[in-house]
Amino acid sequence: MSIIKLHDLHFSPYIDKEKIATIVKHLARTVKADLPENEVPIFVGILNGCFLFAADFIRAFEGNCEVSFVKLASYEGTKSSANVKELVGINEDLTNRTVIILEDVIDTGNTLQEIYAIFKDKNVKQLKIATLLFKPDVFRKELPIDYIGLSIKDKFVVGYGLDYNGLGRNYPEIYQLTTPPKMKNIVLFGPPGAGKGTQAEFLKDMYNLVHISTGDVFRFNIKNQTELGLLAKQYMDAGNLVPDEVTINMLKAEVEKNTDANGFIFDGFPRTQSQAEALDAFLGEKGEQINGMVALEVPEDLLVERLLERGKTSGRTDDTDEGKIRNRFNEYNTKTAVLKDYFEAQGKYYGINGVGSIKEITQRISVVFDTL
Ligand code: AMP
After folding, report:
1. 20 to 30 A from 283, CA-CA: which of 34, 121, 311, 334?
2. Active site residues
3. Residue 324: its pLDDT value, please?
4. Ligand 1, pocket residues at CB < 6 Å
5. CA distance 34 to 25
6. What's the pTM?
């Protein structure tokens, strides 16, 4: 999950799919447990917002039930100027039935109160309300809310059926309103030896960004013989990736050290799909995002040559042995290369020809950076 933009506003991740599913299942079970045996309730969803919640809730409800949807439509009275509200869509005879209203979110309770009053007139046996989300800080009514999935702060939320001016209903997660991102965060991407580190050194000054190279941080830890360094060394020496959990935690710590940065150039991170997802989630929680992945595209044979050449002076043991170098490419091709698709799917992938002089390539990258 990462930040989304709907019309003019930005929204950051708030409740993920798994959590929503847990809440909805729990609600369905609780409602079922309270019903007398053999009671067949009528669930009435309040459109439009509840359509995803209602669908999931009803699927999770174990027992017979009927389902209906209503919409509260307002029209101008012909004589008075007051808004008259009418419930559209209820055709069933509700006499002596157990009616359970399904709402996506209850805030002030204004709409709900009108709906409640209309149903109360229909001689129902029981009228109950189940809502996915509830905002206790703004609720101003005396109505009983029988089942609450989750109480939330008074923030504007979208996704999972909820919209902002018509958009956002189709997202499977829930997002909350946030301020526009302030940072420029760029992933500098490419296989080992593509020149990411070299380019990042120029770009960080040109754009006033903080450069984080996970490889450099690992090497720093190895040099200082920290616990992290000792752990990472065994993987790095063999040209293997360091496990995700270790790398992700280290990356987060590096970002937290620079809270007032204008943004970051991530070099050598993410290198796996789960690192990319963790980075999106981590930045999303801060109301920030990855603006783009800029990839240096260089043929593999040229890279092996470059790395062996670099190994003569870099002092890096993983640069001197062709077998280890090949293994690093193997890791890249099997675990890292897929990230092109990941960022392309978000419309954030920018491939750049990485063959040429250092200056030429900086120039090519900066053309892209300027647009991000
Ligand atoms: P680099 O300096 O980016 O070429 O990285 C050197 C080595 O550090 C890699 O071969 C890995 O063993 C380790 N490493 C650096 N970044 C990561 C990462 N994001 N995930 C896992 N391992 C990494």
Report:
1. 334
2. 196, 271, 310, 316, 328
3. 87
4. 192, 214-215, 218, 235-236, 239-242, 247, 268-269, 271, 275, 318, 328
5. 15
6. 0.76
